[in-house]
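Re: duplicated header lines in exported structure tokens

Our pipeline writes sequence and tokens for each protein into one text file. With two proteins the header for the second block appears twice in some exports. Here is an export where it did not happen, for reference. First protein block:
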Amino acid sequence: MADGPLRDIRILDLTHVWAGPLATRVLADLGATVVKIEGPMSRGPREFRSGTPIGGWLGGAPPPEPWNLNAVFVKQQRNKQSVAIDLKTADGRATFLELAQEADIVMENFSARAMPDLGLDYDDVAAVNPRIVYVSMPGYGKSGPYRERVAFGPTVEPLSGLTNVMGYGPDEPRNTAMALMDPITGINATAAVLDALRRRERTGKGAYVEMSLHEGGVTYSGPWLIEHQLGRDIQPIGNRHPRMAPHGVYPCAGDDAWIALACRDDADWRALTEVVDGLPCEADLAQRLEIHERIDEAISRWTSLRTKNDAAAALQAAGLPAGPVNVTPDMTADAQVQARGFFVPLEPGPTPMPGNPIKMPGIGSADWTPCPRLGNDNRTVLRDWLGYDGARLAALEEAGVLVDKPPK
């Protein structure tokens, strides 16, 4: 597995979708041994008879083993091992608890009732390993009136307050449609794990770490909570900014091509008037906010005659914060990320995977491993961690407790 500062840490990863898998991916990138505990059907059925999953397939076309090449799933699973085990069986549950005795961390982001229903909640695991760090991240937490609610990122986001300030006007609320709560909570979880491990170093005790998608989003609403406390009006203002003008995204030459621009202060404004024709040379912030639409029209006329990269270069040359709005092909081909080697050609197919934004000695992608096949490491992990012999492993496979492909 990847070498790094967490090389001696063992993690049992029961997470799914985005928040949890992102957290364990970051920890795996930092060298932790992450064993992904998967259900027999966790990657979907053996055959996809119609449709395409969100994100499509690696390589573009439906592969012979679709469950192993779902692009969205694969993206989050590098540097991990896969043990596919049916936790709903007595033998599966017993085997998991044996693994938990050898682990440092268990992470899950199921609904609040899923792990208790399996008999694998924190109390069950701590009974066999008091030093365990057990991380749960359900949509609304393990307590409160919403604990049983079904949670999904785009439905949690409005409840967090973010949707209240998103959109292009008071009559048109929007949300990101990108499940923003998931990556927020995933990164929070990595910090929580490191905090809990440091605490265990001092006290020798494990910990139960609980977080929720909902509260992760609420933490991003601080500025608007303050505005509300001060009695100010809070309204969605789209791409504009309450303390900057102009501030927005403007159309450029080409098909669906755009550039983002921020004018931070009067010095930026004077620089902008030297580049873009038709702007009043002297205008303070209050005046610019008042005539924002006229300013936007003038900027749009200027940007629409230039490609987004040419427009960005001209504005940057004048000292203005500006940049092209990149779509996926632009992102992977961008000169900056190319120079820094951020995207990593780890998986099959033409699109490289995002790398690790943490850059420090001893951390890199040279020793990374791609997403494992379902159940790829069943025998290796159970032999190395628990000393299972061939006969015992074969019996678990024969009983369907261990699998390496979906049952149907």
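Second protein block, exported in the same file:
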Amino acid sequence: MKMNARLAQRLLPFLSLIILFVALSIASPYFLTANNLASVARQTAVFNTMALGMTIVIVAGGIDLSVGSILGLSGLVGTMSLEAGYPIAIGIPVGIAVGAGCGFFNGLMITRLKINAFIVTLGTLGIYRGMALIISNGLPVHRIPAGFAFLGEGNLLGIPFVVWLLVICAAATHVVLEHTRLGRYAFAIGSNKIAAIYAGIPVDFHTAAVYAIGGALTGLAGMIEASRLMTGQPTAGLGYELQAIAAVVIGGGSLNGGEGSVIGTLIGAFIMGLLSNGADLLNISNYWQQVIIGAVIILAVTLDEFRKRRQG
């Protein structure tokens, strides 16, 4: 019986994605067009990449409310380096490094100051956004090489390049979570931090590491976003933290830590992407989209809590 309930819980996000896909196909004649599906793939690549990083953080029992600000700061600094004349092969790693540095700083603050991750990242949400506005004077970066557009808008073998990039990031994240010591320790820390400490796991080190990895993936998402817009916006990523957290939770991740998977997160992010795209196609207000996203998060967390109570 427990096995059936667990299987149903794992299949629920996938079944929800299929139902949503079919419903939108029926509701709008424009949904199944090649241009629209390519647009969905490119748009969700940003949220997917962020959500992959958030998955590792949530598995380890943490949370990062600053990822939207990290995305904006990373994309801005990366495009500023391109504007300064550095090649694209340098500019993209610069953006990723900024994201990794921000994530590492979050992890360091959490572990050294022993402050709740929610409070730390709520604070750095404002710090990183403020830094982006300060160094840019609130102005976007426009003078970017035309070749940079390939990262977010280019195609490789007829498939959006960001999809290939997402597959690589997802595979790497899966390997880290399922086949490395860092991944095993992340699950252990998220499941029971005190037990992990008594087991001799270097909790502080691995906590900082997962935040750094999450930040690096968010930095890459920031560069993808900048490439799609062909501008470095200091205000980019506003509210994106909600999307990333929602993707993980909808995909079966637990805000209590110790649970989460790459496949589940990808499905969750695609559900969020389809909801947004479908709302646009059906002329549903952006305000209602926020209501829907919030309701979906509450529903997903409620189902997770209900399942745990039944198992308990």
